[in-house]
Design brief:
The protein is an alpha/beta fold. It has a single domain, classed as Rossmann fold (3-Layer(aba) Sandwich), CATH 3.40.50.150. Helix content is 43%, strand content 15%. It contains 12 helices and 8 strands. A hairpin with a 4-residue loop joins β7 (307-313) and β8 (318-324). The protein is globular. The N and C termini lie far apart (79 Å).
Length: 330
Amino acid sequence: METVRVLKRRTEAAIGYIAENIDRLRHPAYCSLTKDAEDLYRIWRNDCPCEQPEFVHSRWLDVQPCFARLVENGMPYSFLHDPTLSRKFYRIGFGRPQEHELEYLLDGVSENTRDLVRQYRESPVGKPTMDCPQLGISVNSLGMLYYFARIIEQLNRHDFGSIIEFGGGYGSLCRVFLELLPKPPTYVIIDLPEILALQYVFLRGSSSEYRVFPHTSLPIELKEGSLNLVPVHLIEELPLGGDLFVSTFALSEAGKAMQEIITRCSFLNCKAAYMVGQNARSIETEGVHSWESPETIHSAAQRVFDTVELAPFHLADAWELMAWRETNNS
């Protein structure tokens, strides 16, 4: 009887392994990417003092190891269904916020932007849930298209030939820009090592046409018309200047010291900015700290840009900020 139970457990374990990895086995190139990502992560992690508060908010410390294990264990093809990742980066379920986004994309934008949105096709990497049937995409991509449309409609004062994104999630917003802009921008994502590794896999796996350059040492020489992955500890070594600075929740979830670095660099000296962030909340749970007040970000934007538009955001307890320099209008 004991032998039967052992065999049963081994069989169940084997079936579970096959089910978890069958997609990776079907995509040998993807497996190669995950190995490259592991190597990159180790290089970045060894150089990045990520435990220091200027690089990561205390509320991120608990989830960082989960992302690290995801990278170090080979990142299954269905990584979007990882509980920690889906909780932090991947929206699911069609509700009122999504109704608002869909209505805006279909009825609240110009015809050109609406046509662009309808052209977007979901990447299969990560095995997204196609829970926005109206556009044939995931709810998460719906949110990214909403950001894209807001930027194109409200900040279309520049060509967006160069974009700096602080905190890029798993790379979904970056992919929207790569797919829908008329020509590939010089795109920079600044993020933590384990998240950069995730972005590397997703974006390289999504298209062989994306030129992805992970930066692991100084000096940082950005590759034009390409995606540049830059670890957060090298942020002050970045060449300053760009058409657009983007951060959707990441900057508001950074520590105060990191917010001050970004604002001291005048949002990396970009001509325009689009930011969405959380308001600080009072948290009484022992050992859990609230996000920083957005005042540092908002007041800095008023100093840096000629025009700033700040309004409540439709998702969660959040705000949306759009800003630009009038002197750089095209």
